[in-house]
Amino acid sequence: MEYLAVRPGGTYADLTLGLGGHSRRILELAGASGRVVGVDRDSDAIEIARERLAGIPGTLTVIKSNFRDAADKIREAGIETLDGFLMDLGVSTMQLKTPERGFAFLEDAPLDMRMDASSGKTAAELLAVMDERELSDIIFRYGEERWAKAIARKIMELGKSAPVESTGGLADAVKAAVPKGAWPKNMHPATRTFQALRIAVNDELASLSEGLEAMLGVLRPGGRAVVISYHSLEDRIVKTTFRRWEKACTCPPDFPVCVCGGKQRLKVLTKSPVLPPDAEVNENPSARSAKLRAAEVL
After folding, report:
1. Nearest residue to 223 via CA among 261, 292, 269, 262
2. Could you report the per-residue pLDDT of 16-43, keeping only the tens digit for each?
3. Theoretical Cys-Cys bridge with 274: which of 31, 36, 111, 292, CB 3.0 to 4.6 Å?
4. Is 43 left (phi over 0), alpha (psi -120 to 50) or beta?
């Protein structure tokens, strides 16, 4: 909230509405004349957030959308500019704790992983159409998993007799593929594979890249962008996008004078990402990999 700099009467977008925690605080700070646009692609989360935020002073507009289309949907709702927006990336606690959504491996459930359960291929359907090389590339690139080739090989091997269609089946495949001595000490060995498939199923990185670019264009001068990421690839997209908007000249380095006429459009407020303090991580272990970056449009 400090970096978002919420002011009374302002208009803000919470692009990861979830269960409404951030939106509630923004509404409280913006007051009765303030407005929050809550965006999420998960219909279940939207319904819960509506109930939780009912009765709080201020105007709440809820939009079902992914990051890629959020800017257009916000304009379609009659809102041309914003004073700020927040993105809290990754999968929500509610999604992780709902077994039938297929995001976690604590209970055996259908291998779904769609953030919008009404559209797109499930993780099981994606596995059914990929070959071993494609799967290995996804696990390595999105999960940064060193055992990606072995995991992909095992999944394909098991799939010849029976398709891997459950969270338990996928977790067992990973455990069988990774030597027990190489299992992470404080993390389930299937964590990175589940993360990689989730990112692929929801096209998260491309959606973030396109959506962040478009949303910066909706901010009025002085408007703030705050993004919390939990994955190095997400953080890299945020960092490079902010830097590109902050850089005035885009001419090649060997040009003697600037001919592009570029102007600085943004000021980065966090030269290094803001990390959670130890006390917060101890209280909420899921925050351990969080990185916050913020910027202000000029």
Report:
1. 269
2. 999 999 999 999 999 999 999 999 999 9
3. 292
4. alpha
CA distance 176 to 143: 18
The b-or-e profile of 63-91 (16+ CB within 10 A means b, else e) is bbbbbbbbbeebeeeebeebbbbbbbbbb
* The predicted structure's pLDDT at residue 260: 76
Return the bridge partners of 294, or none: 226
Alpha-carbon distance values, 168 to 165, 177, 275, 292 (Å): 9, 14, 33, 33
CATH topology of domain 11-88+204-297: Rossmann fold (3.40.50)
**Residue for token pair 């290995």:** 136
Q: Which residues in the chain land under pLDDT 50?
A: none
188/106 Cα distance (integer angstroms): 10
The dihedral sign for the CA sequence 111, 167, 153, 151: positive
In the prediction, which pLDDT does 94 show?
A: 77
Q: Using one digit for the tens of pLDDT, what is the confidence trace for 54-92? A: 999 999 999 999 999 999 999 999 999 999 999 999 887
| β-sheet bridge partners, residue 274 | 292
What pLDDT is stored for residue 180 in this prediction?
94
Its CATH architecture, for the domain 100-202, is Orthogonal Bundle (1.10)
pTM for the full predicted model = 0.90
Domain ranges of the chain: 11-88+204-297, 100-202
Q: What sign has the CA pseudo-torsion 12, 16, 17, 22? A: negative
pLDDT of residue 25: 98
- C-alpha to C-alpha distance for 54 and 99, rounded to whole angstroms: 27
Angle at 190 (CA atoms; ends 186, 195), nearest 5 degrees: 100
Q: Are 209 and 238 in contact (CB under 8 A)?
A: no
Q: How far apart are the first and last CA of the chain?
A: 20
